[in-house]
Amino acid sequence: MGRHILFVGKSDSSLDRMWPRLEDRGLHVVLAASQRHAIDYAREHTPDLIIVDGTVSRSSNRLCRSLRRASPHSALMLLTDENGLAENVPCDAQLRKPFTSRKLIARVEKMLEQHSPKVLQVGGLILDPATRVVQGARGEQRLTPKECEILTLLMERAGEVVSREELMERIWNTEFMGDTRTLEVHICWLRKKIEADPRRPQYIITVRGEGYQLNACPRWRSSRVGGVDQKRGRPV
């Protein structure tokens, strides 16, 4: 699928006339039937832009937060009414109704330009967060949303140790550390997609007692057991 927009709100005659104009510019517009459908779609497909009609929802703040967690790489626009802009809403921009097609198109194009996800590269590892496609030792692989979020964070912090606590809080929005098995399972799945030998990882290194580190300069060394410096850590 090409660049696309997810609209969350009720059918509106004025808005319905605008969607074809966005389609004419090569953007695919998806209309969510419900808030639950919107969150599920955002999590699965990572839209380039999400537009939330806050004029028909009393819980636009909560909805925007849920959409942020579901698709952190999507730009988020909130439509407000004539009373003015909403406060403390986690969105990138707000647009007050009523507005013209020209104004909507201009704002959409500006947001897409500003929030276009950049391709990340660390050594031979290349990730496109927009499509969740990674190129590694096993060729081109598609990641799940959670896998993509984990790898994006590790690649952005390549060479640094990212703690389990931070990963759990950032990816799962929880500070509960009673069971990190979910995180370990996702790391295992990631290694199977990007490592030549998941049992001897070169990229995602476990730092015992601390967290995980993306090795910025992966290299086999005979003095290392299993491809991991035993003073630094071991695979999950």
List keywords for this structure.
236 residues; alpha/beta; Rossmann fold; Arc Repressor Mutant, subunit A; 2 domains; five-stranded parallel beta sheet; four-stranded antiparallel beta sheet; elongated
Helix-strand layout with pairing:
Layout: E1 4-8, H1 13-16, H2 19-24, E2 28-32, H3 35-45, E3 49-53, H4 60-70, E4 75-80, E5 93-96, H5 101-114, E6 120-122, E7 125-128, E8 133-136, E9 139-142, H6 145-156, E10 161-163, H7 164-172, H8 181-194, E11 204-207, E12 211-214
Parallel strand pairs: 1-2, 1-3, 3-4, 4-5
Antiparallel strand pairs: 6-7, 7-8, 8-9, 10-12, 11-12
Helix pairs in contact: 3-4, 6-8
Folded structure, characterized:
This protein is of the alpha/beta class and 236 residues long. It folds into 2 domains: 4-114, Rossmann fold, CATH 3.40.50; 120-214, Arc Repressor Mutant, subunit A. It has 8 helices and 12 strands. A hairpin with a 2-residue loop joins strand 8 and strand 9. Helix 3 (35-45) runs parallel beside helix 4 (60-70) and helix 6 crosses helix 8 (181-194). The radius of gyration is 21 Å and the shape is elongated. Mean pLDDT is 84; it is low at 220-236.
Quick gist of this model?
This protein has 236 residues and is α/β, with parallel strands linked by helices.
